[in-house]
């Protein structure tokens, strides 16, 4: 028996050797591939928002996989290793699942691809699209929206919203009744939106036109851009040296407003609706009325055909928190003049700011609202533009040409809808989302208030905004170190990557973002590391003064 | 023992009864849901390109699932049933998988969601994105493209392409060297594209501006649209009464062109490069030169900063086939004047027209090219804009502001990239795609030539274009029955749905589209049914003359 075994080993040796060789060469190939990826990436990929000249291959992150909120990153040191990095960019503000939701979503994606692949949407209905529409209307669209229009991303959702708003405006102004009136049509080609400076709504031309001039809209980016808006500087709020304060733009710093800034006893006070009766509210109201009045032509016709705002937080514009009182009054002033109101909730929607819709924080409702990013839990693109019944009715008529002729091939694709259905249900269920306060749809405070306050007191820190899943920190900087193109934060962020936190700055603003289900323990530990890195950087290299701009 | 069993049954009866009740009530609920779906859909969905007034709930198709090329449609007749319908719209031109690829994709989607979810793209690399970029550059970008820029859909891919082209144009015209020269910058705000009338590039404003006025771009849709192009009427080709013929636009119908139309001995003849030396080619060349000359300003500066075309087939514009000789000459004339050339291959790419890229059919290469739809096999949104090295270099510089600052949250999302990698490999592998001719990357003829010819001879048919996976049929119509808003084909298509074919018209143009792997037997049987329906409709209701416009 023993001889037999030895004989068998002898005879099989070639097989074992060959198996070993195959395994070894496969492993070697895989390792080689991982080693080569940064160089290949630098040679053939074209990353968005990236100056390739500034990205040497050693700065490229090789992502082997992700689990919940963490990337598994391949690194070459003395040996190959896979290390965890917290995805503090929330993969560009989309990321939502913890590890358990990711597993559930994976199962659903396989199922949905097998059951539906993608099926065509117009005049058809299938379960994932219908269920998602129902969930949206019961949730983020509750009490005001009656229709759901699907597209692929925030930018297209905004393009659709603008088309809806303009049609509603033309309908209310009875332009639609007389399309043969050439002078009326001519006048309406110059329609404008009101928007707030620093807001961002996407990179397709229509969405760009609704934004004030910024690095994203410059001549170098798209020579066709001209900015078709009345762009107002908004009053902002933030925590500065441990206190929540109001900052008024220059145009409002008149004696009427009495104070250059106001302090608040707490963040909650900022959102209280009893501010509506304050002197400041009156000042906001007359300021807005005045601006609207100035934008009428000689016959009294207003070219302002829509208001578009990011409720509460202007994200890409540097994570600025706008005074919700100002936004609420702006919404009401517009609606009272039949100017349709669009909320761009692409960033703020779905618990990003602690509430299902950030309209709840503003205590008012739009006519049209845009959602994307976190809607699918952050795994796959899908967007929705919600509209009120009055908006929808402006497209109903006796010709196909009156319908909204805007579409993308994958409108309401089954996999996106299924991912959204699963994620929204998961986020709003207190058995799966431990961050919900009781049976409410509100998240508990995720960022330790004491720690946030301490960070804001550090001399290297100019301001902090912590709200919902977001904690943004503007570093104290001057001159060319301020603004989108600044490289000011790069050495700090490099250090944080070594500490297991993957961040990307908006100029001199850094931020950390978690999912709606991320535990407060994880949030605390991440924020502690960031605070430590700020402290260390400012001691070692004098962050606040000495970082050389590249 | 037998008594024991009877006792057990007696004791367990309540359990069985309750199980039966649960199963019965679950089934009843499911059936009720399917019954209610059309009504709910009509109440809360807002379909793209759809006049809701024309869609009563009995016209809504309830799609229970799909398998390969077929929908499983729920119908209520005397009893509930699920019936198969061939997805002849190819779910709006995206659909590619046969049943076996769909299963493979489902497996990959589950795996990719579990492994990556979505991970952030800029400055990062992960296997699906890198592998897809490699496959694109070896395939559709072979010999000309060096970079891949990812986005979500055809419209965003075109917006990106336009930004690339304009920058390249500014770079070549040395405008970038002197941005302080205000008059130069001012002049460049009026940049235009050349495009062909009837082309369609998407519904976001930038993509719209590159299209000639059409129902999709009207004042009712987006008052901001003005059409920033030199729009040329293209010469078209099609099969008419059994012969492939050329149709010249009015502007070319001069004595120079000698003939009002030319016939071809076969479709292949149309694509032959020996046509470059013909008299017609000379006429095209001088016509194009003349048009370009007229678009210079007094100082000789040309405002034409890009050419954008759909190679060979203008899809949404009514499935028009443009004379490839004209497009080839247009491309060459532009490139010789340093006008960057964009191919919009969103519809035509990935074997839609029988070749991996339809640039192969034109025998020339672009500077920038846009892909989407079929790229992921048709299950999930993803787009790519490919660019030459010269285009990429116009964005490299010493400031982030010179980088291309255009992005969408799900840029290069892992699931989309993985679906595309699997699909492209599957389509180009002759062991998985039986339609490939030998080891080539060309599809065999999918539509029976004899049958196509017969259809074109029918008096109710005005023209036919059969190429690759597409067979388009323009019905003979007059007056308001012609064009996008026409309801002319609706009764014919209703009949075909009863025959198991789901179609949607482009006005009086109907079409059938299959996947790159669909068998010729299936194609033949579908086309036979369509021919039979045309014959029957024209006999019974006098299709060509008597259908009342709704």
Automatic annotation (TrEMBL), chains A, B:
The keyword Transmembrane does not apply. GO terms for cellular component: mitochondrion. GO terms for molecular function: transaminase activity. InterPro entries: Aminotrans_3 (IPR005814), Aminotrans_3_PPA_site (IPR049704), PyrdxlP-dep_Trfase (IPR015424), PyrdxlP-dep_Trfase_major (IPR015421), PyrdxlP-dep_Trfase_small (IPR015422). It comes from the Eukaryota. It is found in: Mitochondrion. Keywords: Aminotransferase, Pyridoxal phosphate, Transferase. Its main location: mitochondrion. Belongs to the class-III pyridoxal-phosphate-dependent aminotransferase family. PANTHER family: ADENOSYLMETHIONINE-8-AMINO-7-OXONONANOATE AMINOTRANSFERASE. This is Bifunctional dethiobiotin synthetase/7.
